[in-house]
Amino acid sequence: DQTRFRDVLLSIQIVPYGDKEKLLISRDITRFEKLEIMRRDFVANVSHELRTPLTVIGGFLETLLEENKVPGEEEKNALQLMFDQAVRMRRLVEDLLALSRLENAGNDLVEEKVEVAKLLQELYQEAQSLSAGRHTISLDLDNQAMLLGNEEELCSAFENLISNAVRYTPADGTIVLGWKVKNGKGIFSVRDSGIGISANHISRLTERFYRVDRSRSRDTGGTGLGLAIVKHVVNRHQANMGITSQLGTGSIFEIRFPENRVFLTEQAAQADST
Ligand code: ADP
C-alpha cells in the first residue's frame, strides 16, 4: 500500500483572517498516529525481549572473568571487551524501556509528596561514587519544600542530569546540585564547570540519540537517551527545563516546577519570602 505512510489531504480552503485571508489546509493524521503507536510498541517489545539474553550473556562473561577461567592475556582482554559491550547494551535496553514506558503512559501520573532534599542527599552520594573523587560536588538546599510528583520518574530525571554533569566535567571540576523555591516555583538545578555546549546544539539535546560528541558520550557510558527521558518526565509534571551553557566554561540544567506542585514547610515559606 503506497499511501500507508502518508497523511490524507482532506481540504484546502481560503478563509478570512482580519483584513487579509489565510490558507487553511486540513490533513487526516490518523495514519501517522497509528504508525507512532506501532513504533513505540515495537521498541518496547524488542527492548523487553533483549533484556534476558543480555543478562545471561553478561552474567556468564562476568563469572568467567572473575573466576579467572581464561588462560591467556589476549583471551582475557577479548572477554573483558565483550563484557563491557554487554553492559553497554543492557544500559541501552534499560533506557529504551524507560523511554517507552514514559511515552506509553499517556497523562497518567501516580503522584505522591516527594521529599526532594532527602532524595538529593541520596543522589549526592551516588554522584560522589560515580565521580570517584575527581570532582568537588556540593549540595545547595535552601529549603525542605516537598514536590508533588512521581518519585521514581523524578529520581530518574535528576539522576540523568547529575550523571551528565559528572561525565561531561573534566577532573578537578565542580558540580552543584540545587533545590530552592522562588516565587512559589520549585527549582531543581545542576551546575557544572564542564566542557559546556555551544548554542547551536542546545535546542536539539533532548532528541533521542542526539549527542554533541558521539565518541565522548560512548566512552563515558552514555546511551544518548538521558535527556529525552528527562524531557518526558518534565512534561509529565507540567514543568519546564532551562539549559544555559557556555563552551569550555560549564552548563546549568534547571527544572522549574509549577506552584501547584510545591508544598512549602514553614521553614521553606520563610526562606521564600526573604
Ligand atoms: P548521553 O548519554 O550521550 O549523555 P544525553 O541525552 O544525556 O545522552 O545527552 C545528550 C548530549 O547532550 C550528550 O551526548 C552531550 O553531548 C550533551 N550534554 C548533556 N549534558 C551535558 C553537560 N552537563 N555538559 C556538556 N554536555 C552535555
UniProtKB/TrEMBL annotation:
Enzyme class: transferase
GO molecular function: ATP binding; phosphoprotein phosphatase activity; phosphorelay sensor kinase activity
Subcellular location: Cell membrane
Biological process terms in GO annotation: cellular response to phosphate starvation; phosphate ion transport
UniProt catalytic activity: ATP + protein L-histidine = ADP + protein N-phospho-L-histidine
Predominant localisation class: membrane
EC number per UniProt: 2.7.13.3
Superkingdom assignment: Bacteria
Histidine kinase domain segment(s): 45-261
Record's keyword terms, sorted: ATP-binding, Cell membrane, Kinase, Membrane, Nucleotide-binding, Phosphate transport, Phosphoprotein, Transferase, Transmembrane, Transmembrane helix, Transport, Two-component regulatory system
A GO-annotated cellular component: plasma membrane
Primary role: Member of the two-component regulatory system PhoR/PhoB involved in the phosphate regulon genes expression. PhoR may function as a membrane-associated protein kinase that phosphorylates PhoB in response to environmental signals.
Name recorded for this polypeptide: Phosphate regulon sensor protein PhoR
Residues of the full protein shown: 147 to 420 of 422
